[in-house]
Specification:
By secondary structure, the chain is α/β, with parallel strands linked by helices. Strands 1-2-3-4 form a four-stranded parallel sheet, covered by helices on one side. A three-stranded parallel sheet has the order 5-6-7, with helices on one face. It has a three-stranded parallel sheet with strand order 8-9-10. Helix 6 runs antiparallel to helix 9, helix 7 crosses helix 9 and helix 11 crosses helix 14.
Amino acid sequence: MVTALADGFGRLSFDPVIVDIFHGGYENRLMEIIRSRKIIAFISVSGFGLPPSPDSDAVRIFNNVDAPFLGVFLDHPFCLHDRIDMPLENYHATFPSGHAGAFCKRYICPDGRFHHLPHGGIERATVPWADRNIDLLLAGSLFMCPNTQRAAWRDHGADVEGKLNDIVDLIWLDLTRPLEESVRQVLGEDVGLETLFPYMKTADDYIRNAQRVDSIVALAHLRPTVVGLGWEAYADDLPMVRFVGQKTIQESLGMIDRSRAILNPFPGYNGSHERVLNAMACGSAVLSSRSAFYDSAFSSEDIFFLPNRATDMPSAVAGLLADKDRLRIMAASGQRRFLSAHTWTHRARSLLQIGGIFPAAA
């Protein structure tokens, strides 16, 4: 994603430089670039490269450069608060969910500058439809069996377990509703971030895993392929599912290229996910949970929107996969929509507008 975003800036006639903070001596490399180049913006992905603390020398160094600092975050801000409240003079933070800014202003930094920036995708060649050998693919790891996760809640006592169960029940009713709203409805409107955080983290971890497991169990008869870690426990009970284990990013993209349809069950309150746009980029059809962003940016001609609960999926998904012409038309429509507005070049342009380098969008 970092190289794709950098390539997007390159296509807009800029000369981006990537400083890998995992390489030794990156601080010297950064200072050399600051001294030798005209910096128009600093961009930090997921908070990497931000000053390690509000009182570090890095704050002074960045503030001495007349350039905006743009933090591109890919997750909900509830787990990123220490990277969001920074005393940088021209600091902007972006998130893939549209409601994240309101969360930040309420709980983290009331005077911060926060923006909505969905994921983008990488433009790639299209494998001919007849050459694709995967009918339905889910690319996603399973970090823990959801039944095991939920059973562990009782270790925290009956009160906490009951609240978590109530929160999860509310989330299932509407997966596009901001997570914090469901948590506050149970805990109370006046709770602070320290109280919200463990409930949001626990519920979010559970929902992500439960959606994936429930979807694969419900659609097992359609012989889906699953790539990712953690699925071993389900292999014996789901013999019709092809579990291929962990793959590299490039291998996973290659499997998406060879798929007719991509399955994306995810919590809609998170806004977007890169796998949807990468699937559209190569002309695969997308079957995804709803989100406010997907509803606003795409139509039912571009995406097949999955029901909230997996028990409602089998008949609808089976009918779609059986209708090869409809599936192919949907894939082509999604690809056109992607290319028109949702590449990483489009996101690079949005970042330049946020930073005041390009004029704001009309």
